[in-house]
Amino acid sequence: MSIGVDQAQSNGPVNVLIAGSAPGTPGTPGVGIADVRVDDQGQLLITKTDDELITLSLDAVVQLAAMQAAANIGTNINDLEANVVAAASSAVTSQGAAAESDKSAVVAEQHAADAKTAADQAVPLLASATNAVAGVTSDAAAVKVMLTAALNGDAPLVYCGYWDAAKNSPQLDSGVGNEGDLYLVAVAGTTSVDGAAAWNVGDGIWFTNGHWQYFARASWVAVAQSLYALRSVLVGSHEISADAALPFQIRDAAGNVALQVAQDGALHVLGLGLCDGSALDADTSQPSALRLVGSDGSYVDLDAPDYEQRIAQHAPALWLDAAVGVVTDDSGVVQSWSSRVASPWQVTVKTGTPVRFATAAGYAVRFDGTSALSHALPFTPGTIIAVYRNTVSTASAQPVIMGSDSATAGTPAWSLRGYIPMGVPGAYARAQGLQVGTSASVSGFAGRLNAALGHWQILGATYDGDTIAAAVGLTHATPVARALTATPLVCGGSGGLIGASYSASGILTDFFVGDLAELLVWDRVLTGREYDDVVRALQSKHSLQPVFGRFLYSAFQTTQAGNEAGGIEGLVMLSSDDGVAWQHVPTEMLFDAEHTMRDASITYHGGRFVLACTASSFAAGYQDRFSVWQSTDGRHWDFVTDVQCALNGVSAHQTWAPEWYHDPADGQLRLVVHCIIGTGGSQVYEMHPLDDLLISWSVPQLITLAGYPQVIDSFPLCIKGQWVLFFKDEAARQIQIATATSPTGPYTVQTSGNWAGWGSGVEGPSALYLGDDADGNTMLRVYLDAQGNGISYSDAVGKWPDVLTGAWSPPKLLSVASRPQHGTCIRNPFPHYGA
User: Fold this and answer.
1) Contact status, residue 796 vs residue 810, Cβ threshold 8 Å
2) CA distance 725 to 769
3) End-to-end CA distance of the chain
4) How far apart are CA 181 and CA 124, in angstroms?
5) Less CB within 10 Å around the terminal CB: N or C of the chain?
6) Which residues neighbour 38 within 8 Å (Cβ) at sequence distance 6 or greater?
7) Facing residues of 797 across strands?
8) What is the pLDDT of residues 434-460, one digit of tens each?
9) Rounded to an integer, what distance in angstroms lies between the CA atom of residue 478 and that of residue 282?
10) Is the pTM of this model over 0.70?
């Protein structure tokens, strides 16, 4: 007889064969099993009756059977199950055969138990193989789907996070899901979803074609040592490209180059974005080429941190810096103030108790309205620059920062004044430029910087001997020149002062109430680039950056409220987080009695703020043009151009209130402007720039409002696909509403008379769509110029479009420390916080 393993039984539990020998001569003893035992090495020792020893490794037998079963599992699951059943049946057959002999029964029963153990081990192998086969099929299908989707430019997967397959969390149900949703298995389990019930960590469950698909090893990383492309690789909407003739570059879907590495290795990047929303940017056209630009538009120059050295290289004749050179007593009262650069002149106390104190950016000297310092400069300065702030609005209307008396007592030879009120109580700080000569030149503004009360600002002015030149500052606009009366500027009389001036009787007057951080004086006129460099250094040194909220409002105000004929009109910039309480934003703009502005309209386009305004002063009569300005930070403005309005060769002889708007259909920047062309009344016209520089403009296109021969102050906006035009009926001096399907009409007027309760005498509407409330109601707000009383606002909430002509709230005046007039409110494109 022989004993062995059935090699033909390759995919089931072990089948032990006990075969007898061929029949011998009758009467000859047969060969049987004499002994069966397991030695201390785990081997099965079988001794036959003829003393032949058969040695089998029991572990090897079991392992061999299991390995053969796993190695030979096919993809036909039914065959696999049949093989397992056959293996179990074979084990039973072995058990029956063993019953022929008592000893054989013992051995057969033992091998039957071993066979059952092997079968039990084969069952999980079968389940694993089932998943493996399904996984391979799924992988192939997934690759096919993803390749097809990639060729079509579509991303096939939407990653949704991790899935607990033991708890079914988040819950996934068979046949329910969004196309492309993919979860990765974080906890193994047996949740049954669309026929799959065995999940291992790292597997994926992917919803495609209406059911959840088992995605084997979805989280495994696929590694390729090299990825080759003939020219470019698409990643999402971006293209990464390079070849022998072109540099390596990354372009967005619009074709803009976001990053480029040239053949020489030079890196070119359009602003390096940081995680907080700020950007590292370079602009060789600026004095400081490298700067860090915050998400709110503020900036810090990075390539010139030594501000003092930058200023010192321009050699001021006198440099008073409150951080150095100030001698005080024990209580901080100033005794003297020396220049931080070599200078034969120092400053001493004239009267009062000016006090030195620490600020967030350094130090300053506080003037309380009764204090002044004296200086002995023997010359009329060519340039003066001051860093200061007003702290009250109840002091002199003409506070003197620095000046010198002339030979005629009470008549200043020159003075730098920081004007406080704009003709009304509680107004904001406004700086006047250098006043030179007699009082006849008092209206000769040389530069102006508006600021909220208490805000630090920089004021500079120049005098070249016979004209007052506007301090070009950061505006880069053409300086305003104004001829002076030929009066010799001879210092004398009572001498020079800082913080006050002399009256005709020699008494101190026009006290400055506020803080002075730095005062720089040159005996020459700085060039425009020198002036810019000094101002930028001071801005960075004192962190003089814009403070903007969620909303911005551009408006104008006059030096004499309501007196359009005699006032000097200038820009007012306001900021708010709720649209009701507003603060002034320090803003530099150049105007004098001959170059003023009104009806300021602001928007954000092409990465910059742009401003359109009515040009010239009311006294000179509105002309045939409006003005365009631009700014990168909303504070410092560059003059762009004057846009002349003419139709069929006939120029407008009055031009009012340009108002920006964007057409959502094409993103085009456009505006409406109000002109009297020919003998008719004021009408509304559409115009738009023909280039990105805003230099060339289209011909005015008439927007007809039937029955309204006198229309000014229109404000267009698109709400839910419908164009709405707020406009002023100049004949009745009331605001009406018209609607249309396109921005240029034709418009249908929807209201009449005092329909909203806003009354007569209001103008300059600026409207905002504030979104929908929880009930789906449309929320609107309109700001109105109350003509000398400030800006008011009115709200409406209701179903669209009935809300337009429904009930509006009674107008309320804005909370702001001045009385601004006609302007435009926009959402700030980069507020400090929130949107």
Assistant:
1) no
2) 13
3) 92
4) 30
5) C
6) 44, 45, 58
7) 779
8) 343 332 233 222 233 334 456 677 777
9) 26
10) no
